[in-house]
Amino acid sequence: MATLFAFAPFLSAQAPQPLDFRGLWIVRESMVSRGEIDRALTFARDAGFNHVFVQIRGRGDAYYKSLIVPRSDRIRETDFDPLGYAVQRGHQLGLNVHAWVTTYLLWSARQPPLSKAHLYNMHPEWLEVRADGFKQRDIDLGAPRDGSFEGVYLAPTHPEVNPYLRAIFTEILLNYAIDGLHLDYLRYFDLDYGYNETGISRFMDKNGFDPRAVSGPQLAPGGLTAANDQMEIWHAYRRQKVSDLITSLHAIITLSGKEVMLTAAVKPNLRVARAKYFQDWVQWLEDGVLDYATPMNYTPIREDYLTNLRITLEGVPSRVRQRVVMGVATYNQSAEDAADRISLARMAGLRGIAIFSYDAHKTDLSHFDVIIEALRR
Questions:
Q1: Distance between CA atoms of residues 241 and 198, nearest Å
Q2: pLDDT tens string 194-242
Q3: Mean pLDDT across the stretch 27-36?
Q4: Confidence of residue 159 (pLDDT cuts 50, 70, 90)
Q5: What CA–CA distance (Å, rounded) separates 157 from 238?
Q6: Which residues, 6 or more positions from 246, have their beta carbon under 8 angstroms from its beta carbon?
Q7: Residue 114 and residue 128: Cα distance in Å, rounded?
Q8: Which of 252-273 are b and which e, b meaning 16 or more Cβ less than 10 Å from the residue's Cβ?
Q9: Residue 260 phi, psi dihedral angles, 5° rounding
Q10: Taking Cα atoms as reference points, which of 168, 160, 148, 342 lies closest to residue 252?
């Protein structure tokens, strides 16, 4: 109740306005054949969605024709181009089709990728390293996992990672008539990552200290203030590496002359996103390098959802707030609860909602009836 009371000042006195952005995530399992794509996109059209995020880069592989990235082994038809077909069919249905791509997350299966051309096998030196020296390239993929394991990440601090990602995303932008490029996992795995050996070496050359040595005030000659200052320099450096990627992609789109939206799925608590994952998405909106941010406010706990929503409304300037598309989950809560979350975001004045995901209930599409009603209301 306390959270709802704190949220009350943000509620609009007027009836919610129609949503400008009604988005639906379509996971790569539904991108493997014409039939799967047809069913997903036809549902999106019939349900009243106007934007679809179709996943065409899942774990360092391609659901499109690429000269750089190995083709996903889930696509059985040799000559089939999932992205090309999705764009063509989506446009026939009046949908805006966004190419949904992972950025720094590279692999998560229990066996290494079979293709020797996969980046996991080609460049293990590009992978993340933890502050204590643990290298993600040494992870036993088949070992038991706890809930914190997301997968193996590329290191944003490695000097060759961002240029590689720019190259593969530019290939998509130039070769497909997409309406948007949607970036996922545009962040570090956690606060304790970013310590790739080459990345650390480059940082030390530029800044003159080793962040691995700044674990407490006793290790800094100037005491607590010096230690804090040094760690903030290191935090800002890591944060900037992620921002550099999205800034460069914005420039590439601008120079291409194409009308392509640049969007990103982001952590729902903007303070945590910036401080823990070095994902400064509010600044990206303010700088104009990001067209829409989609906070993944997927928690099934209503109080937590409201907290994230309140922090968004407090922290995002009003001039860019309509470029926030609130993400709502269907996989971990009832349809009625998802509809409630949609209504709360609309009552707060947001004009964009995205649903994660079509695939969660594609075998029983009637599950979405209540959700669709909440989007149209």
A1: 14
A2: 999 999 999 999 999 999 998 544 434 444 455 688 999 999 999 999 9
A3: 98
A4: very high
A5: 7
A6: 183, 186, 262, 264, 284, 289, 290
A7: 21
A8: bbeeeeeebbbbbbbbbbbeeb
A9: -125, 125
A10: 168
Share of the chain above pLDDT 70, in %: 93
What's the gap between Cα 20 and its chain centre? Answer: 21
Match 């039939």 to its residue by tokens.
Answer: 35
* H/E stretch holding 355: strand 352-356
Q: Which domains does the chain have, with CATH numbers?
A: 2-376 (3.20.20.80)
Q: What are the angstrom distances between the C-alpha of 250 and each of 62, 114, 195, 240, 257? A: 22, 33, 27, 15, 11
What value does the CA radius of gyration of the chain take, rounded to a whole number of Å?
A: 21
180 vs 4 pLDDT, higher one: 180
- Name the phi and psi angles at 181, rounded to 5: -115, 120
Q: How many angstroms separate the CA atoms of 82 and 243, rounded?
A: 29
Strands (E), 170-234: 180-184
CA distance 237 to 353: 32
The predicted pLDDT at position 312 comes to 98
Give the per-residue pLDDT at 3.
58
Of 313, 372, 308, nearest in space to 343 by CA: 372
Contact 277, 337 (CB under 8 A): no
- Mean per-residue pLDDT over the chain, rounded: 94
Which tokens is 23 given? 């988005």
Among residues 322, 320, 263, the alpha carbon closest in space to that of 296 is found at 263
| Residue 318: predicted pLDDT | 96
Look up residue 207 and give its amino acid: N
Residue 147: predicted pLDDT: 84
